[in-house]
Every structure is written in C-alpha cells, then in structure tokens.
Amino acid sequence: TARDGNLSASSALRSTASVIAAVEVRGLSEERWSEACRYFESVVAENSMDRSHVVRHAIAPHAPYSTPLEAVKVCVGMAKATRSLISMHIAESTEECEWLEHGRGPMRDLLSSFVDHVDELPRASILDYLVELAKCDRSLIVHGNYLSDSEIRLLEKHSQTMAVVYCPRTHVHFGHDEHPWRKLKSLGIQV
Length: 191
Description:
Elements lengths: L8 H5 L5 E7 L4 H17 L8 E7 L7 H14 L2 E6 L3 H9 L3 H7 L13 H8 L5 E5 L5 H9 L4 E4 L2 H6 L7 H6 L5
C-alpha cells in the first residue's frame, strides 16, 4: 500500500520489479472512505501515462466491519472503470461473522469503543459483499476462513475472476478453525 503518495511509474521503472499500487479504503463514515477513494483516483491519474505496465493498480476496501457496503460499491465501480484489482478481507474471524449476522459479540464491543451509536452502523452479509466483488474483473478474497456453503458456491461460480488468499502462518497464529482451502481447490477456486 502506498501511504506516502510517492509511488509513481518513474520510481517503479528504476527497479526491476513490477508494482501493484494498492490503496486501502476504510472508514465507517462517508467522509473517511471517500478520502481514500479520491487518493486512489490520484494514484491512477499519476500513473496513467505509464505504458510499460510496470505499475498496476488495486483498490482494497479493508473489511466488512470497517468499510460499509456502500463504500465497497463505489470501490467496485472504480476498479471496473480502471480495470484494477480489488481485494478485501472477508470472513476473517468468527467475531466478524457474528457482528455482520447478528450485530453482537466482541466485534460490536470493539466498534463501540470508538464509534458512537454502534447499533446504527450499516451491516450487510458476507454474501452481499462477495456479490459486489464478483462484479470486478479480478477480485481477491483475503482470508476466507469462515466462508459458508452459499458463499463458496458464489466463489465457485466466479472462479475465473475471484481467488482466495490464504496465509497458513497467520491462520495458525490466530488459532482459527481449519481453513477450507482443500474444499475451495476441489471446486476449482483459486487459492
């Protein structure tokens, strides 16, 4: 993620590596997530003259508990318009799933520690988020530790454009249940 605003095609060309300039979008208020979207637009504009394809772009709405579905819809539109990769942390923890499905649990408690009126925050299902991400040419689902059968079916339907990013060490570190990567692979989903 380019946080200092100095990532450009010219700096990437001095290196032998290709670069994916990913801008993370997070914020429960429209003001906050809109700022990150504007920054993404500026990164794309700055690198629009790069014909070497050394610098590619990605937009990364963080996670369902930190980025409302409305913001993800805007990010999807931007990714489609710029033919950019989109990635999002999805189904990372049981706490996230409990918050999205029932509006309670440790994630609610965490959010209430820094957001007034936590019960008024918009919530949508993981499937709602995946449906939006499926509209893009290339989507990465980061973690996917606790995907339901219906969510996995959607990934299977879009297996040519959606992939799951699984990090075994992080998974073990946080003590998650067994990751469904074998099931995903057996269904032709990229992991």
